[in-house]
Design goal:
Number of helices: 4
Mean pLDDT: 97
Radius of gyration: 14 Å
Low-confidence stretches: none
Bound molecules: iron/sulfur cluster
Strand content: 15-25%
Number of domains: 1
Number of strands: 8
Helix content: 10-25%
Shape: globular
Strand order of the largest sheet: 2-1-5-8
Length: about 150
């Protein structure tokens, strides 16, 4: 029987999955806080886009491309991952998502500025932007959880 709880898309690294660029999970898990109220659908756009784990850190450049610390343009993989996340949200019927803050894919309010100097600026990751464009309400683990 289908779980009647509303569906929520969640960054897999916020659920204990060791899928971030360092091959680790995020230090904070939101699973226990969300699972009583939502049916959680995990998603890692960078893995869905075909990138390895671990992988070199990447940042969004001023021209919108995503380039990793080794100088490789990984924009196509980030876009593939974003498109996959949008398809997953649609297939699962998820009207909202809680995504990892400050990621070039999942960041929803701030991202690193492309200089690999740890400098944050206002902006959103490739997947957060795509989900919002598709009508999904996106927040991060730094926001009050829905
Ligand atoms: S792409 Fe998103 S879900 Fe995957 S490791 Fe990065 S922040 Fe986490």
């Amino acid at each position: 029987m289908a779980d009647p709880k509303p569906v929520i898309l969640v960054s897999a690294c916020l659920l204990g999955v060791a899928c971030n660029h360092e091959g680790r999970a995020a230090s904070r898990s939101v699973r226990e806080e969300l699972e009583s109220r939502y049916r959680i659908v995990p998603v890692c756009p960078e893995v869905l886009g075909g990138l390895t784990t671990p992988r070199p850190a990447a940042e969004i450049q001023p021209d919108g491309r995503v380039v990793n610390v080794e100088g490789t343009d990984v924009t196509a993989a980030y876009r593939r991952g974003a498109e996959a996340a949008v398809r997953v949200a649609g297939a699962a019927g998820a009207p909202r998502a809680v995504l990892k803050a400050r990621s070039p894919s999942c960041g929803s309010a701030q991202v690193y500025d492309g200089t690999f100097t740890g400098t944050l600026e206002e902006g959103e990751g490739v997947t957060a932007a795509a989900l919002r464009a598709a009508g999904v309400e996106v927040t991060s683990e730094d926001d009050p959880l829905p």
